[in-house]
Amino acid sequence: MARIKTEKNISRKDVIVTKAAALFREKGFKAASMRDLAEAVGVEAASLYNHIKSKTELLHELCFGVANRFMHKIDEIEAEKGNDIEKVEKLLRFHINEMIHHYEEVYVSDREWKHLADPYLSNFQNQRRIYRKRFAAIIENGIRNKEIKNIDAPTAVLIILHAISGIESWHRSTQKISAEALEENMITILVGGLINR
Amino acid sequence: MARIKTEKNISRKDVIVTKAAALFREKGFKAASMRDLAEAVGVEAASLYNHIKSKTELLHELCFGVANRFMHKIDEIEAEKGNDIEKVEKLLRFHINEMIHHYEEVYVSDREWKHLADPYLSNFQNQRRIYRKRFAAIIENGIRNKEIKNIDAPTAVLIILHAISGIESWHRSTQKISAEALEENMITILVGGLINR
DNA sequence: AATGTTTGCTAACACGCGTTAGCATATTAT
DNA sequence: ATAATATGCTAACGCGTGTTAGCAAACATT
User: What pLDDT does B129 receive?
Assistant: First the structure.
């Protein structure tokens, strides 16, 4: 009888959620079946339901897990003292590193949230909207005190966030530059594009 | 008996493909059903098959239609004489305008190509790879003659292309700045991030 | 008006999906 | 050792999917 292997402090549910992230990233939420997931986990499809409530629950876990991490980070950064352009850079570096080291979850949260069901869907969209406004507010502050070019802040946010999601291509490319080099290149181009000199 | 309305020079197939673009954009390729599409077109699902071969054919049409337009544009731009940074800017503006005015098709081509079946899938991936290499080559040229900062060209391409796909968010936002303002803001940030001064 | 073609409809198919029920086997606690 | 719990299996369900067959209505051509 097959059994889901776990290590200390990692529940079987965690194993499933992690495998789900990889699968949803690869095939998309709708195209990934519970039978696919079961195979990846090494178990029959029905057995998954001893640990999870539904397929959508997996998506909730992933989306809100990621969203919470970003929310906490922006709390932290807003509370800091310092230049606004530095705050933007810090947030940027956080995004980049999340995308590098928690690729699958972040990617899924970014691309597949549409398939959330409706109490969760609205909640997620709200969080997203608020997050972007707070991000834009930092940039607007930077514009006001001339650290940042006079640009439309929401547009800047949109460029930044989507540019970062391009790290997906880096993950899939065969000839990768190092993660550090990737981070510095992105900072050079994006901060360089914002900064006022 | 319902009938698909057509105007001059627009085949019924074209009508279906266009509606499919909107639907695939909204729900995703897998989640959009042929019955959904039929309803959007104003006809029964089975009737669609008088005009198209399969659901996947719709995806082919969309993906390769978009891919061809970009290929022709880069042909054109490569053939021109002039600064490399200007070429980059022209290509950028083309991308931006495609994303603004042919939103649904471009978006679908960008996000849903994974669901192509395999002779087409490989073909599409190849075209994509080649396109990005040619784009990177222009940037590398610009770096060599000091027009552009010394950055990793493939990373720059990845940032640019994904940043542009952020126009999706602009389309969905309620308080849109004008298309022209959007274009100029994006150019300011992205070209500003690349240029060497 | 008669003919051939295009377009649409209803009905149905085979298939894969998420999920549940009921039972068997491990693991853990007493 | 025994009881209780956690985990897995097989079988099956209802449902929505893409697609086809066969026939009817609309249109185009003569």
Answer: 96
Q: Which residues touch strand C (CB under 7 A)?
A: A 1, 3, 32-36, 45-46, 49, 54-56; B 1-4, 12, 43-47, 50-51
pTM of this structure: 0.94
Chain B CB within 8 Å of residue A163 CB: yes
The sign one gets for the Cα dihedral A27, A29, A30, A36 is positive
Q: What is the pLDDT of residue B1?
A: 67
Average pLDDT for A76-104: 95
Instruction: Answer positive or negative: Cα dihedral of A79, A83, A84, A87.
Output: negative
Helix (H) or strand (E) holding B106: helix B103-112
CB B154 within 8 A of CB B132: yes
Closest partner CB to B185 (pick from A152, A185, A186): A152
- pLDDT (tens digit per residue) in A6-63: 777 888 999 999 999 999 999 999 999 999 999 999 999 999 999 999 999 999 999 9
φ/ψ bin of B28: left (φ > 0), alpha (ψ from -120 to 50), beta (otherwise): left
Nearest-CA distance A8 → chain B (Å): 36
d(CA B17, CA B37): 10
